[in-house]
Write a structure and sequence with these properties.
Order of helices and strands: EEEHHHEHEHEEEHHHHEHEH
Bound molecules: 5'-O-[(R)-(carboxyoxy)(hydroxy)phosphoryl]adenosine, zinc ion
Strand content: 15-25%
Number of strands: 10
Distance between the termini: 23 Å
Helix content: 25-40%
Number of helices: 11
Strand order of the largest sheet: 3-2-1-4-5
Structural class: alpha/beta
Radius of gyration: 21 Å
Length: about 350
Amino acid sequence: MPSADKETIIFAIETSCDETAMALISAKGGLINPHFRLIKSEVLSQIISHKEFGGVVPNIAKREHIIALPQMIKMFENLPEFQKAEVIAVTAGPGLAPALWTGVAFAKQLGDETGKKVYAANHISGHLYSFLLSSPKNIDSLFPMVALVASGGHTILFLVENISTFKKLGETRDDAAGECFDKGARLLGLPYPGGPELERLASQGNMHAINFPRPMISQKNYDFSFAGLKTALLYKLKGDNKANWKNISVSGESGSASSTHSADIAASFQKAIIDCLRLKSFRAAKAFNCRSITISGGVSANTLLREEFAREAKKHQMRFIAPEARFSADNAVMIAVSSYIEILSGVKREIQADGNLAI
Ligand code: KG4
Ligand code: ZN
């Protein structure tokens, strides 16, 4: 099992949603100076299989994972490092239960066949610890740190007190930020998954064109709410100026909602989501005298979000760290990294899939 004073090789499996992923990493340095070498990472997206349904269908995800897992393992099992791996880390939850079960069952069988120890990982911890993939120096100087996890299923703000200790400050009360991007994209007629598509359209628009609401932003808590924002977009697209959204104002030539360019709508909508995430994250970072701030989860691939967080962090003399955008979305590298930290920190879980696994 991993220990602070030797190199440990960890193999990881992630099947919580619509990506089948495996990774092999070498970890060293323990909790004081953890650093990682990526040996191999594979991610197979199922987007094509879910596209016609406009979202992820759990039983299709399960079927696709069952097909992909035995094929993907072939890309790892002959590597000398795989033979040396001591741990098989597998995402136990949270996520889609039928999808999670495929990974857990596969990992258990692999553990039986190879004699390697199976570790049940938490998907949210995986995102949270992704900041370690940017190889930050002097880990202790990062804490206290605010960590925003913004994905398709979750929007959670954490206070990370040290490498092993974190607590939840707040989370979304309804839709996740990624879900808001996805639903907004759908309303705009963009294909699934909506986040990157909406970002692309937004890049051609004026983010100040429409003043969408920033829900809950004046409330003194660290929670979010995105469902109303989606409704505001719906009213906007319907051109319903009688809707009860005082904040909607239309800039531009005719003043009619339907005349506003869709790129302007996308840019303004994206800006509203990002403002909510930024304002609450930095309010928390200031309240807890944080020395750094990090973002992870699929939404953190968003360029404007990264730019705004980087700018704000500079303004407040905080360090901003984020994994490379390719590690924002679901992957197994983050599962391997978080498992290394959690095993050394003494975190234990039952090896069973749990769609609602708590963080
Ligand atoms: O972390 P992730 O890959 O899966 C979950 O754990 O949910 O996050 C997926 C979410 C989707 O909602 C997707 O639309 C969103 O991340 N996303 C983005 C971008 N890329 C992915 N949202 C905004 N801008 C992006 N560039
Ligand atoms: Zn995720």
